[in-house]
Structure prediction request, 242 residues.
Amino acid sequence: MTVGTIMEDSHIPLSKWVLAFHKICSSKKGISALQLQRELGLGSYKSAWFMAHRIRLALEKSPLAEKLSGIIEADETYVGGQPARDSGKRGRGTKKTPVVVAVERNGKAFSKPVDNISSAEIEKKVLSQVDHTSVLMTDEYTTYIPIGRTFGEHHRILHSSGEYSRGFIYTNTAESYFSLLKRGVIGIFHFISRKHMERYCAEFDFRWDHRQALGYNDSQRRDAAVSRIEGKRLMFAQLLRG
Prediction:
């Protein structure tokens, strides 16, 4: 029954897997592996941590998923918590992991860690998942200018001048997404290494795409997640390598 799924070779009962899916899908900011271990009565933190990452793998969007479209807000931020030796530097240039998101107005999101905040990297990793006939909304960061030329329209909001909206031109939706992601990182996970960030982004994307405002309750969100378990597998050694 579990062969060919994320649960293959797991000794954890199916009932606990379903409960883990429910807890991850119903917790707005996520749930820590330690809390998952306690609530499911798992034998070790390692088991809970591995389980959570396997579920995050299941939540990743298919490469064949329909592209985002309509009015798209794109933005970048830096996440990952603050390791003990971090200098505390903030913003562009920090050692934290840069993450870029594209968000449909009143719709879905796609976020991903990037190696750098360059036009080519943002296009390759994130905006390749967006229909380029869409209307793109960004801040004034110059890296978005060449990208914007490939879209149907490109509008920029001038945050550096104290501007946060101009009619329908704003990036508040993308900023709301990042606010939720950062609250999860700081309040629940505390620190996320760069090598695991992509799976955490998939987790937050999934909950965003299946949020209450789009008509999903906790049970429907869980069922949508469970439907993605086939054809994906993550080995513990692979997880340690990143």
Summary: Strands lie at 71-79, 97-104, 109-113, 135-139, 153-157. The first helix runs from residue 14 to 26.
